[in-house]
Amino acid sequence: MSDRIERLKTFLKETPNDCFLNHALALEYVKLGDETAARNLFEHNLATDAGYIATYYHLGKLLERLGLPQDAIPVYEKGMEAAKAGKDMHTYNELQGAYEDLVY
Fold first, then answer.
1. For the chain, what are the domain ranges?
2. Cβ-contact 22, 12 below 8 angstroms
3. What does pTM read for this prediction?
4. Domain spanning 2-103: which superfamily?
5. What is the Cα–Cα distance from 70 to 5, expressed in whole angstroms?
């Protein structure tokens, strides 16, 4: 696993704001249980490109696992808005399901 992390970090040296690479690296950190590193990368993605909708679901779930459901709710809400704007109904439905599971 560390080999994948090192390769992703190498790619990110050339393109540090590449949301796909940051997202992939964050998911590797999630697998390792490094929630802080994963959260930082997910939040960096949203700050860099709020339209990168894959990040919303994973950040929301991470926040839930960290015991921060009040922080996950607005992430899901913003993600649903972004997915709707991008006409990505599959992601919208996933975010809506996660949101409803948490709120209701």
1. 2-103
2. yes
3. 0.93
4. Tetratricopeptide repeat domain (1.25.40.10)
5. 30
